[in-house]
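Exercise 7b. Backbone tokens:
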């Protein structure tokens, strides 16, 4: 049975959540689309823990949430002027964009693809959190092959004590983000239709 202190509700938690995430902890909270299992994208151990908790296919990369286009510098991702113009038109919003990333430093995020997928959410609350924590991974809150949790209670059934905190934002029902590949010349290819 989940302890009450693990479920945090209200504005006062915003600072605490950031400190938990900066310390490498993981938790379930609302993203701009669905509840996600959230953790720092910059900490390899945190990313690997999320893969394990969700029982996710180790070959499937995670989408990285960022607070601005400038955050791409954390990952040594260089974009062309055409790409930047397209990103400014797409973001913020529920579209995840796959970009080239050749550096081996982020192999834990690339999963052999030499690319990374990013999303700049429109949610002001989430953006404020990202500004404090830096980039976060936030795959949907479910075990691999199961439907995404629409409530914190459903998320608790999936993860129980395997995550460090839960933030209840009520019932969330939404499609996942659209995923596109954006080439240097600005060509777009849709990998997954979504919200």
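Sequence design result:
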């Amino acid at each position: 049975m989940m302890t009450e202190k693990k479920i945090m509700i209200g504005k006062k938690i915003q600072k605490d959540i950031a400190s938990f995430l900066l310390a490498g902890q993981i938790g379930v909270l609302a993203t701009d689309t669905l509840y996600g299992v959230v953790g720092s994208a910059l900490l390899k151990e945190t990313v690997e823990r999320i893969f394990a908790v969700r029982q996710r296919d180790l070959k499937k990369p995670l989408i990285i949430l960022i607070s601005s286009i400038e955050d791409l510098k954390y990952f040594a991702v260089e974009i062309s002027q055409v790409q930047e113009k397209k990103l400014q038109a797409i973001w913020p919003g529920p579209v995840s964009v796959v970009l080239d990333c050749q550096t081996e430093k982020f192999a834990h995020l690339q999963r052999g693809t030499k690319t990374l997928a990013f999303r700049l959410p429109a949610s002001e609350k989430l953006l404020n959190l990202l500004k404090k924590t830096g980039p976060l991974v936030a795959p949907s809150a479910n075990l691999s092959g199961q439907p995404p949790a629409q409530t914190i209670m459903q998320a608790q059934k999936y993860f129980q004590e395997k995550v460090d905190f839960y933030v209840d934002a009520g019932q969330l029902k939404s499609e996942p983000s659209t995923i596109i590949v954006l080439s240097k010349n600005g060509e777009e290819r849709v990998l997954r239709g979504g919200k």
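Instructor comment: Confidence is low (pLDDT under 50) at residues 1-5. The chain is about 25% helix and 20% strand.
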